[in-house]
């Protein structure tokens, strides 16, 4: 009987070890009464079925308490100057406000469907826009670039009563466009682009440049130190972008810790991407452990009836 109980326990452990993580394993916690319910903003183009799919992607079980809104074409032109109000908008976002000091964390929960923007690109742009101390989950049921998710995030802050600076939002959108363009046109890895933008911001916070020439030197120095080659046109895109940030007098000192955390996250992601040998070893170790568990299972059966 003891052997039989042992076999049952072993089977239970094996099955539980193979089960995927549930939605409860993410960053969603109890409601913070100071900030209210999490806010979910859906892209206007979603069908009713796609909306249900997005809710599932965001971990919203039946009865999950959130505030729900829709980001429309009118919102797009309201928050981002020069955009098309007839644009199709699928990207959706859930924003959960956090206490000061907890930092900004972005999770793309459908990375297979957000084709141009990465977690770190969103984080960089949102810090520029003035978004801090929040967990932001982004999802789409179809393949999209991911740019319209920014509109939903801006709207979430607007309806919650915390209006973000309009000009900073526009610069943040330009930053996201520059980041994705550099990744596509220059052939630079998306995370390397994010690292470049983050490092330039940190250097601007430290040096507090007073002229465009000083901004240009910071950009050139970072390109050289990170060993990134860009065309003269792409270099100018970066210089113009950060000159706009300088003229807005954005105080990146206020988010220095979040920039440092973002740098660490980017470095970890880059390491995971390039460390194929380590990844292969992890896979090998997993299957080795699985085979050993199966072998021990059948060995227990044999001992039971032997």
Query: What is the rounded distance between the termini?
Result: 14 Å
Low-confidence stretches: 2-27
The major sheet is characterized as:
5 strands, mixed
As an assembly, this protein is single chain
Helix fraction by DSSP (H/I, runs of at least 4): 55-70%
Spatial order of the strands in the main sheet? 2-1-3-5-4
The overall strand count is 5
Order of helices and strands: HEHEHEEHEHHHHHHH
SS summary, helix count: 11
Number of domains: 1
Proportion of beta-strand residues? 5-15%
What is the radius of gyration computed over CA atoms, rounded to a whole number of angstroms?
A: 23 Å
Based on Cα principal axes, name the global outline. Answer: globular
Average pLDDT? 82
Q: Which structural class do the helices and strands define?
A: alpha/beta
Organism: Rossellomorea vietnamensis
Protein name: DUF1002 domain-containing protein
Overview of this structure, please?
- With 306 residues, the chain is α/β, with parallel strands linked by helices.
- The chain has one domain.
- The chain contains eleven helices and five strands; from the N terminus they run H-E-H-E-H-E-E-H-E-H-H-H-H-H-H-H.
- It has helices spanning 2-18, 48-57, 73-79, 119-129, 149-159, 166-185, 190-207, 212-225, 232-248, 256-274, 276-305; strands at 39-43, 67-71, 92-97, 104-108, 134-139.
- Strands 2-1-3-5-4 form a five-stranded mixed β-sheet.
- Strand 1, helix 2 (48-57) and strand 2 (67-71) form a beta-alpha-beta unit.
- It is globular, with a radius of gyration of 23 Å.
- The model is unreliable at 2-27 (pLDDT under 50).
- This is DUF1002 domain-containing protein.
